[in-house]
Specification:
The protein is of the alpha+beta class and about 325 residues long. The protein contains eleven helices and seven strands. Helices cover about 50% and strands about 15% of the residues. A seven-stranded mixed beta sheet has the order 2-1-6-5-4-3-7. A hairpin with a 2-residue loop joins strand 3 and strand 4 (about 265-270). The longest helix is centred in the first third of the chain and has 28 residues, at about 5-30.
């Protein structure tokens, strides 16, 4: 049976969307910081794209990639309003939803690499302080290398306006987060030292590895354990972790640790049995010797997509330890 023109157009449009899905996911996630909202935006993007494709032959789109990015970014900007309203009633500190790097089949390595273009969790926290337009411009320009003229077409602004947005965003971000990146091996070692000290309640070790001005954010969303405000300073942070370790030991609760890459950084994913318990991401000082920030996500809604993975990886992920 021959394929009808309408069906062929729908199938072709869907394939074009699938071909660009990982790029769209990476861009939208960096704008929103939420996997669930990103998935919703991609669904809206697909509906908008296929609806337009039914009215216009695919041959009429000279640059489908640019058109899809424009649809996705504008849906993401519209979604920011709903996220802001949710944030106003959120219990305790709000952190972005952690994105775990997953192993990719050989034939999809390039696509998976696009998704891994997410900025660090610490950087996503900084991006939360930008306006939605500034954040979109920063992500497109700084993370994905879009030129100002290309971004102007995406957000329907003049190139001059985009340059101004980019300048403000860049100044704000670099003032709050100077450019540096510790060597991956140093990051991994510091991460493991911190997790061992924190879960073991080793005050002496914690005082050595925590920077004097360290800040700890715990996002439980009112649905899991978590502080109502960030904890600042090495002494308070060390007591916080020591107290947690003591309470956990008293309950006899076993926690399995899996060292995984989260938003591109070596991090610790904690499991209670088969269920995800927390994701811990550490931000390091410029020399990589101390922990300057700790981001702990315990809200089960933000861990719904986290899966246990006991297989070793080529990146050196450990089999896991019983804490």
């Amino acid at each position: 049976m021959s394929e009808s023109p309408a069906t062929g157009t729908a199938d072709g449009a869907t394939q074009v969307f699938v071909d660009h899905r990982e790029l769209l996911f990476a861009i939208v996630y960096n704008i929103l910081g939420s996997v669930a909202d990103t998935d919703d935006v991609l669904q809206e993007t697909w509906l908008s794209w296929t609806g337009r494709a039914r009215r216009t032959p695919l041959e009429g789109f000279t640059n489908p990639r640019a058109y899809l990015v424009r649809i996705a970014v504008n849906h993401a900007l519209a979604r920011r309003a709903a996220i802001t309203r949710r944030r106003e009633t959120y219990v305790g500190p709000w952190l972005p939803e952690p994105l775990l790097d997953e192993p990719a089949p050989e034939d999809s390595a390039d696509d998976r690499a696009l998704r891994s273009e997410s900025v660090s969790l610490a950087m996503l926290v900084v991006l939360e302080s930008l306006t939605p337009l500034e954040r979109a411009v920063f992500v497109l320009n700084e993370v994905f290398g879009y030129a100002h003229t290309e971004i102007a077409e995406v957000i329907d602004r003049s190139p001059a306006a985009v340059r101004q947005l980019a300048h403000r965003a860049r100044e704000h971000v670099h003032a709050r987060r100077p450019r540096y990146q510790a060597h991956p091996r140093v990051r991994r070692q510091a991460t493991e030292r911190f997790v061992e000290a924190a879960l073991g309640g080793d005050i002496v070790a914690l005082m050595e590895i925590l920077a004097p001005d360290v800040t700890v954010w715990t996002d439980g969303g009112g649905k899991a354990s978590g502080g109502l405000r960030p904890v600042h300073g090495r002494d308070k942070a060390a007591r916080l972790f020591a107290g947690y370790a003591t309470r956990r030991a008293g309950r006899g609760t076993g926690i399995d640790i899996r060292y995984r890459r989260v938003n591109g950084d070596d991090s610790a994913v904690l499991f209670a049995g088969e269920s995800p318990y927390a994701v811990m991401v550490m931000d390091l000082t410029a020399d990589g010797e101390q922990v300057s920030g700790v981001y702990i996500v315990t809200n089960p809604e933000k861990l719904a997509h986290v899966r246990r993975d006991d297989e070793n990886r080529e990146t050196g992920v450990a089999e896991g330890e019983r804490a």
